[in-house]
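Re: that chain you flagged

S.,

Sorry for the slow reply, it's been a week of failed gels. I finally had a moment to sit down with the sequence you sent. For the record, here it is as I used it:
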Amino acid sequence: MKVLVLGAGFGGLELSTRLSDELGDTVSVILIDKADGFIFGFSKLDVIFGRTAPHTVIHHYRDLVKPGVRFVQATVTSIDPHRRRVETNAGDFEGDVMVVALGADLDPAATPGLLEDGNEFYTVPGAFALKDVLANFKGGRVIVGVTATPFKCPPAPSETALLMHDFLTARGLRDQSEISLVMPLAIPIPPSPTASEALLEAFSQRGIGWFPGSLVTSLDPHRKVAVLAEGAEMPYDLFLGVPKHHVPDVVAESGMCVDGWIPVNPLTLETAFQGVYAVGDVTSVGTPKAGVFAEGQAAVVASAIIAGHTANSSATHYDGRGQCYLEFGKDQVAKVDVTFVTGLAPSGTFEPASTKLAQQKSDFGTTRVQRWFGRQWTPTWHLRYIGASPTAGPLARPRGTYRSGRATRGRDLTWSRCVAARDIPLSRTDSSRLSSVDCLPSDPLVRASVLRVIDAADAAELSWVSRPIVLIDAERQRTNRRFGRWILVPWSVALIGGVGVSAVLGNAKVGKWIFFGG
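Prediction finished late last night. Pasting the structure tokens below so you have them in one place:
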């Protein structure tokens, strides 16, 4: 049996993995995607706010090696659902079963002014470019705005507003800035009133303006105003937009769509065409457009294909359930578990934000990369400052903030004073705040994988590393009490199981350290 899978997102990857796990090479799966790698939606926010680097969040399809699965990097140019056949720029393919999982395309150009003077953060290029935009932002009026419905990952605009608050606070720019969130929804997360109440409370506590029930229809680059659907205007210095979503053109041209999206049986994900299924954002199944729902739908389709190929299993029905993690900022993550059943109001539960759920979210990404790509991965570079504070020099010692002497395992501390006297908390996944720490090394130096001593005066900005390392501040000589050097040490040298080890490297007495890695 040949299975043709169009799209290698949550749906395509989960489907291919389940078929390979159950059927091995007794089935031939052709997985087609135009990209060379997969990126989690939440990883875009990690990149935007400096939690990690772009190259660390791309999971290349070349690493996908599974029995019975062949990945083809190609652009689909034509779909024939009657014959279950596609044309691509890498040749033509057909199958006994075809699954369309091509997601939704994004169209920033559909909103006048967005390309000229705004920043969209839903595409990969847009998110990666925004990282550099924020690095140069000096504060002002920030608008996070939705430009059309439907849109993927409904919590993302709220998460962005909260993380922007943290980002501006860390850089000492929050007092001179405003943050506004414009959404077409009456509450931030309509399926979960409890989650919405928690978000609205978080907005209120942080002074984030909430403007529900509206869309941003255009930007005026000359007057620097966002125009809302009802005609009102909002001034901005930085606009972060959710662009218009639509079905991919090749899907629209296939004749499979009704009212812009592919209709499917909500229980089986079957389309109107024999042997053709559709999962994820490309459908109008009735669940939010989010990866976790595409994953659940793919599991149902996989069960149907496996049941049709063997006599040892039976197909399951889609239950409309999905879990979503919500970033609340300050290293706190909440979770919503909702179920969408046709004809009924959504139901679900809400778990308040906590660091425990932050770890669960990290595990969510880690386990899927392990399943799909067969390798270990940590979603963000973790950070913890352990030990005594700098004594003098570029960083003046904040008395009473730190313990001196030996390191304390797992202890979150606050770096309450930096070059510009900013309050910068450093904790488990708080690496976003390091982009403004003036005393940290610049990108080329941080990438070094060998021991190196760096003048602190030359260090301007922390970027990211291609492998875990330890950044140690040390005194060159015991008699020299001035903080003037940084030492980069390979992870294996300076850390064992996350616990700092005492060492003497040349004349540099190691006294405290900062480390990155899983």
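What I noticed first: Confidence is low (pLDDT under 50) at residues 381-518.

Talk soon,
D.
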